[in-house]
């Protein structure tokens, strides 16, 4: 057990996911971003621990990524009590937000069985440190950062304008 305590939580979480989804050939989780965007990993993780909740083949073969993500989040909410913290449209992208995925997978980790072998952790340590980022993923990250900056700027301007309006209403200008 001492070996498990020495590894970081992200490696343990990734090891747990890989170990849980090992029997699902369509699923290969190597990170907490692009590996989750098609919805298969979330559903495989749920199905591996609770196969009684849904028919894997129906979900894997007949639904779009957004539908599969929505399915997984609804199953987790209804049967495991995990709030729907993510929007399927936000995850069904080339590079979903890593922190959001980690937070949601951690929620699943807290309610599902958590047996992680040292072999699974060693397997994760052998994965490439940085998976190749495609041009499309770089562009999307750039657009997300730009959008975030624009929202911050807009929020600042809105609060500034609102404070000026409030001041002018409080202290009317006399003619």
TrEMBL record:
SUPFAM superfamilies: Calponin-homology domain, CH-domain (SSF47576). InterPro entries: CH_dom, CH_dom_sf. Residues 7-113 form the Calponin-homology (CH) domain. PANTHER family: SPECTRIN/FILAMIN RELATED CYTOSKELETAL PROTEIN (PTHR11915). This is DMD protein. It comes from Spizaetus tyrannus (black hawk-eagle).
């Amino acid at each position: 057990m001492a070996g498990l305590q020495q590894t970081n939580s992200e490696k343990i979480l990734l090891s747990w996911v890989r170990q849980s989804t090992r029997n699902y050939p369509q699923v290969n989780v190597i990170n907490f971003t692009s590996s989750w965007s098609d919805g298969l990993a979330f559903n495989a993780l749920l199905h591996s621990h609770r196969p009684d909740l849904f028919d894997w083949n129906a979900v894997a073969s007949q639904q779009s990524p957004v539908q599969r993500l929505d399915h997984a989040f609804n199953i987790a909410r209804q049967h495991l009590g995990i709030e729907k913290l993510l929007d399927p449209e936000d995850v069904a992208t080339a590079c979903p937000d890593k922190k959001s995925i980690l937070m949601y997978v951690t929620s699943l980790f807290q309610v599902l069985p958590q047996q992680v072998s040292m072999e699974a952790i060693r397997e994760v340590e052998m994965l490439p440190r940085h998976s190749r980022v495609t041009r499309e993923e770089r562009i999307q990250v750039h657009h997300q950062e730009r959008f975030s900056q624009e929202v911050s700027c807009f929020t600042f301007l809105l609060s500034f304008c609102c404070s000026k309006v409030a001041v002018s209403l409080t202290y009317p200008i006399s003619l």
